[in-house]
Design a protein that fits this description.
The chain has about 400 residues and is mainly beta. It has 1 helix and 34 strands. A hairpin with a 6-residue loop joins β21 and β22.
């Protein structure tokens, strides 16, 4: 199909709102169809629509090198950098290897390419696609590829994501994103550090976040002037990344989702007028063992309490006749008890807990073992004897777990 598409692999991390940090048009690539971000160098790999090579550029558009494009020329494609080592077909592929996903005709093909020599290290013919597979990415936690079909085939084949086995090419799972109202023309997907799928389309004005099971999590509005997207790629480190358009522009965005934490629900007002506030510092991780601290400030002083969490979902159920709400759906996991400190009858108390450390020390805890991609809902409970239920609750904190 003759068209100009940008298929991307880029960098991002969670912020509250997407921001445009700048743009450029590759000097020698008027119509870039595929762009990949290499976190090892900070450079971009660009494939010109129906071109013969994949070229490396600095973020300012300065040419560095190029390698030959494998397979047929295409504008339904994607360029990625392997986020982890894996086996493609029957060949071990190192982390950082250049990947080219060609969905131009028939089923999608995946190529692994040596960035220095251009040698094809391995290839895989998948079982997915009715031509026009416009994007894809390797999911390091699940050990599979996710591929994206556009709207062209129509019917049940259109606007479809498939999870594909990297050794056999077999389709393991599939769902349509159009059921959530997201339509793919030119488009792409990539994997966020939380394990969710981030999608863009030239027919949409948002970045859509889906779970790997196909549930829509949220849509983030694109900044003014950024539109008609065909590519996205994430590195999940610094909250920035690249998105691209068939008009040749590549934009660097800030604020793309990652392993962020967002407060929700309503805290109860305590006997002494305190309004507890929960927050998270660092990143929740399935493997780090330390580094994500739950904090609650503005607690009643010198009161006992604890954090608890759910992996089921959010809730907003009144806590008896008090002003608090239970914000995490059962079943829930309690953590160890602690004292808020501070002076009695004041709002100077606080709680803190390294959630990563708690999970590492308690392998039988609810949700464990975590692998990355899970969403957790946390809240603090504490004693407040004069209140209607003799206890009160903070607001809630939703956070995603990184691998």
């Amino acid at each position: 199909m003759l068209r100009i598409a940008i298929c991307l692999s880029l960098s991002a991390v969670a912020h509250a709102q997407l921001t445009n940090l700048g743009s450029f048009n590759p000097l020698n690539n008027i119509d870039p169809c595929g762009v990949g971000f290499d976190p090892a160098t900070g450079n971009l790999w660009v494939y010109d629509c129906f071109g013969t090579s994949i070229a490396q550029y600095t973020p300012a558009g300065v040419f560095v090198s190029q390698v030959a494009r494998p397979g047929e020329s295409a504008d339904d494609c994607d360029v990625e950098l392997a986020p982890a080592g894996f086996v493609l077909n029957s060949t071990a592929i190192p982390e950082g290897t250049l990947l080219f996903i060609n969905g131009e005709s028939g089923v999608a093909e995946i190529y692994a390419i040596d960035k220095s020599s251009g040698a094809v290290l391995a290839s895989l013919t998948t079982s997915f696609g009715v031509s026009h597979v416009v994007g894809g990415a390797y999911h390091r936690t699940r050990g599979t590829f996710f591929l994206l079909q556009d709207k062209v085939p129509g019917g049940s084949a259109a606007n479809r994501i498939a999870e594909v086995h990297p050794q056999t090419g077999a389709v393991l799972n599939t769902f349509q994103v159009s059921s959530a109202g997201f339509i793919i023309n030119y488009g792409d997907l990539d994997i966020s550090p939380s394990g969710h799928l981030l999608l863009v389309s030239s027919d949409e004005s948002t970045v859509a976040e889906f779970t790997t099971a196909g549930a829509l999590v949220q849509e983030l509005a694109l900044p003014s002037g950024v539109s008609f997207l065909s590519g996205i790629a994430l590195d999940g480190v610094n909250g920035e990344g690249w998105v691209g358009s068939p008009n040749g522009l590549l934009w660097r965005l800030g604020g793309l989702p990652a392993c962020g934490a967002v407060a929700y629900c309503t805290a109860g007002t305590t006997t002494n007028g305190c309004l507890p506030s929960i927050s998270g510092t660092g990143a929740a991780s399935a493997s780090a063992g330390v580094g994500f601290t739950l904090n609650v400030a503005n607690l009643e002083g010198d009161k006992s309490g604890l954090f608890f969490y759910s992996v089921t979902g959010p809730l907003a159920t009144p806590w008896g006749s008090s002003s608090s709400f239970l914000c995490a759906a059962p079943p829930t996991q309690r953590t160890q008890a602690q004292n808020s400190g501070g002076a009695p009858n004041s709002c100077g108390g606080s709680f803190s807990l390294d959630w990563n450390q708690f999970i590492a020390a308690n392998p039988g805890a609810l949700g464990a073992p975590f692998t990355g991609g899970e969403t957790v809902y946390a809240q603090a409970w504490f004693r407040d004897p004069p209140s209607p239920k003799t206890t009160n609750l903070s607001n809630g904190l939703r956070f995603d777990v990184c691998p």
